[in-house]
Structures are given as C-alpha cells and as structure tokens.
Amino acid sequence: MEMSQIRYALAAAGTLNFTKAASDCNVSQPALTRAIKALEDELGAQIFHREGRSVHVSEFGKSILPHLRQIMDQAGVTRTLAENYRLLNKAPVRLGVLSTVGHVRLARFLAAFEATYEGVELTVSEAPLAELQDLLEADEIDLAILNPAGAKADAYRLSPLYEERYVVILPPDHRLREKNAIGLADLSGESYVDRLACEMREMVMKVCAVEGVELYARFRSEREDWVQAMVSAGIGFAFAPEYSVFVPGVIQRPLVAPSVTRSIALASIPGRPYSPATQALVRSAAGFAWPG
C-alpha cells in the first residue's frame, strides 16, 4: 500500500470523477486508475463501482475510506514533525543574558532544554543591560534574559521568569554575620565592594543617600566573580541578587529596611517572528520550575 495510491483513492472519492481526480493529483487518468486498481487488489475488494463514466463508492469503500483518511492525516503529522525537527536544527538560538543573572539556576534550565531538544544549537552571550538591548534590537540575538525594570520594557515582548530579593553578602568573619537580616542603617560606614554592572546600582545608591547611609567602596568591579571573591577575602560587603551568589564561604543575609527585589524576564522584539527553535525555548522557559 503506497501513500500515492491512498491519495488518489481519496481524491476520486471526493470528486467521483477519475479524470478530475487525476487532474487534482497532477497525474494522468490512466496512472490514477492503475494505482487505485492496485490498491483494490491489495485490499481484496473494490473501493469504487464504475458504471460507464459514473463512479460510485462501494459499501466496502465507505467503510475503508475513513481509515485511509486517517493514514493520510497521520502521514501529514509525521511530515510536519520531521520538518519542524529539521528547522529546529537549521539555525541556532542566540540567547543574551544579563551579566548579573545567576548562572547556576539558568544553567539548570538550559540543561533541561538541551536534554529535550538535543539537536538545537544554543549560543549564550553575556552582557550588561545597555549592550544586551542593543544586541536584541539589532537582531544579533533572538532572546534576552534581563531585568525589565532597568530596560525599555515597553519596547519588548516580556515573559516573566522569576523574582529575587537583594541580599547583603558578607565575609565569613564580618561583625554583622550573626544578624538574621540587615538594614541599610546597619551598613553605614562599613567597607563596601561596589558591583558596577548592577542595573539597580543607581537606585540603591540613591536610597543610601536619602537614608544617610555612608558607604566606603574599597573595591569596584563589573565582574560578579571578582566582587564575590573580594567579599570572601574580607575586603567588605556587597549587595547582590540572591540567586546570583555562587562563591562558597560568603554569608548571605536578606536586605531589609528597605527590602529590594527585582524581576527577571525573557525579552524579545514584538512582531519579530520566532524560528521553531526559538519558539521551543520560549515554551520551555514558560514551563520551567524557576526558583521562587
């Protein structure tokens, strides 16, 4: 039983005219007739009764045609799945990630995505917020994981992923290590490690100025690993998103009075179509069990 035979039989059943069915299938009428005859011989019964130029569906044909349609439908689904898989593998997903986003939990999501879509090539670019937005708008990345509060949020299609608190990270022997939570007033005059890449840095600095909190920056860096390493080495404390802390040994305490939180979202350009692979990543991100 060949798919072409089934297609010809279904076309003939729809038109009840072999000539018209042959034209619709882009084959000659004798070729269509031979194919249907071969199918009937294989099935052992006639699908059609031919009376001169008239064609009628037989009782057997009425019973078998729904099954033939189902075979064609399943074949179409299979072709679609195969085409989607081919397209998934055709172009990599270009993902941009805000440099302050914690990589441990993000890596768990990307590992789960790659396990589900083994053939998809994924490239990840890490950048500060302004550069990340430029890459997204220039179509040099397909998606960006960022904090929409610091971005031009109205310019993007946003899918929220998770929220996280800001914490105070302390050296292991810091005098505030015994506190369960730390307010800004507790930190006034303390040695400070400044996270220059933090998209919420200016907001935190303004709050400190309003509250009269004096911070002495003994070290400044745009790199998260250097900031946390210097805290661990005892240079001073730092503010950090709770899911971005990865250096062993530093102490985390919630920042209170005031508390500060941020949202992390998946961003793309409205109206820009997704490739099948990009669409797969968007769906996977929406269904992933993110922290918090």
TrEMBL record:
Q: Which GO terms describe its cellular component?
A: protein-DNA complex
Cite the entry's keywords alphabetically. Answer: DNA-binding, Transcription, Transcription regulation
**This protein's record includes keyword Nucleotide-binding:** no
GO MF terms listed in the record are: DNA binding; DNA-binding transcription factor activity
Q: Where is the HTH lysR-type domain?
A: 1-58
One short Pfam family name for this protein?
A: HTH_1
Keyword Cell wall biogenesis/degradation in record:
no
Which SUPFAM superfamilies does the annotation name? Periplasmic binding protein-like II, Winged helix' DNA-binding domain
Membership in a protein family: Belongs to the LysR transcriptional regulatory family.
What name goes with this protein?
Answer: Transcriptional regulatory protein
Name the species this protein comes from. Oceanicola granulosus (strain ATCC BAA-861 / DSM 15982 / KCTC 12143 / HTCC2516)
